[in-house]
Amino acid sequence: METVFIPSGSSCVNLKGYTLIMPVVSVGNVGQLTVDLIISTLSLPRVGYIHSDCLLPVVGNNPYATTSENSAEMCISSEVYASADQKLAVLQIRSPIVQGKHRSFRQQLLSWIKESEFSKVVVLSSSYAYHRVDQQLIGTPLRYLATPILQNIVGDKFQTLKWKELERIAAFPGISEVQQEIYIPGGGITKLLYSDSCTEGIPLAVLLIFCSEGDNIPDAFNLLNFLNEWMELIEKTHDHHNVTQAQWKIPSSWGLLFGSGIPPALF
Fold first, then answer.
1. What pLDDT does 141 receive?
2. In which region does residue 100 sit, left (phi positive, over 0), alpha (psi from -120 to 50) or beta (all else)?
3. pTM of the model
4. Are 37 and 224 in contact (CB under 8 A)?
5. Is the pLDDT of residue 179 over 80?
6. Cα angle at 210 between 209 and 214, to 5 degrees?
7. In sequence order, what are the residues at sequence separation of 6 or more whose Cβ sits closer than 8 angstroms to the Cβ of residue 219?
8. How far is CA 37 from CA 32, 34, 43, in A?
9. Cβ(108)–Cβ(3) under 8 Å?
10. For tag attachment on the chain, is the N or C end more exposed, with fewer CB atoms within 10 Å?
11. What are the CA-CA distances from residue 260 to residues 30, 215, 255, 263 (Å)?
């Protein structure tokens, strides 16, 4: 079954020229948490959803509820939110890919990306911190990758921001240091999505953070501030210590991120 983008309501949605931001299901679900913050902060309306047989079905209440009226709205496994003013589209993926369907899902995603004619795609991901090689242990845990066509579009922007590109590491350490490859353990389909985009000429960037499973909210804020340096989704403000920071809005659903607390009846 091919992916079908189904618009909300009867209106036709034209995303040509928009920037697409999307997560990959990866360690700590950092990409999805980051996308939650973007949708909540920018109050992005839902414009449709991706209908795919490659994702496990999920249904729940509106995770971005602000009133009792809109809290009863339903959300499903993959939805698209957009802002015409900012020419920004955001895909949220809320469930894992069905086993054995990873390749199909990548193909479906890339097909939709090409059909929609996005100006660029930003993939938010994460990788296991304990798999880092020596040169990745010092300094920032944030890295980026950019396809050749995106490099042409952004020029030296990432160098100006002093971003670190994800290091290529030896495919066969100790045997041959010549053959080097991208290594993103815990990153789900990130590596292959990037490789496919390089092959198919899609302007795509991967932004990722090294992390571990646990409370990954700080990682999401870290990754989002990293993205904001480039995309400038919201303005930064100065606090009383003259530290520059962005004010992100936490969605209502995060109140239950670690369950609903200990039932008093236990005591």
1. 95
2. left
3. 0.90
4. yes
5. no
6. 100
7. 28, 30, 33, 126, 209, 211
8. 9, 5, 10
9. yes
10. C
11. 21, 15, 8, 8
With tokens 């040169």, the residue in question is 135
Beta bridge mates, 180: 170
Cα–Cα dist 189/194, whole Å? 9
Under 8 Å CB-to-CB from 103, ≥6 apart: which residues? 192
pLDDT, greater one: 66 or 192 = 192
CA distance 61 to 214: 24
What contacts 35, CB < 8 A, 6 or more positions away?
Answer: 21, 22, 23, 90, 91, 92, 124
Based on the number of CB atoms within 10 Å of its own CB, is 120 exposed (0-12), middle (13-18) or buried (19 or more)?
buried
Structure tokens at 110: 């890339």
